Amino acid sequence: MTTQGSDLTAGGDADAIRADIERTRAELGDTVEALAGKADVKGRAKDAVGSAADAVRDKVAHGTEAVRDKVVEGTEAVRTRPAAASAVLAGLAAAAVAAVFALVRRRTARRNALARLRRRRWLAGHR
């Protein structure tokens, strides 16, 4: 009758067990690395901010290029048809007025939202 200890040390069984242990260690290391990556909230946040910043840069570059193209078109129109200059200037003025209107409206909405938030906090504190 052979004991279990002698079976483990006999030939290929010990090598198979060692290989299994090494494979398990490697899998465990990969699992720990994946968990550490998920636990690294700061690193993940930096990656997300970097991705968002890249997207914004791309959109700004595209918008800048579109505006540049429109300015070139307007300049060419003014050169070829001086009467078009007044139309271009009127369009630019309308765009400027719309931009100012949007900024004022956004600022007013932000102020109103802050005022509502302050009232809610004040009311919550005095109940």
Give the low-pLDDT segments. none
Quote the beta fraction. under 5%
Structural class per helix/strand content?
mainly alpha
Write down how many β-strands occur, each being a DSSP E stretch of 2 or more residues: 0
Can you summarize the main beta sheet? none
Number of helices: 4
Shape, please? flat
The Rg value, from CA coordinates, equals: 34 Å
> What is the N-to-C succession of helices and strands?
HHHH
Distance N terminus to C terminus?
83 Å
Mean pLDDT: 80
Helical proportion, percent range: over 70%
Walkthrough of the structure:
This protein is mainly alpha-helical and 127 residues long. The chain has a domain at 84-127. Helix content is 91%, strand content 0%. It contains 4 helices and no strands. The chain is flat, with a radius of gyration of 34 Å.
What tags apply to this protein structure?
127 residues, flat, 91% helix, mainly alpha
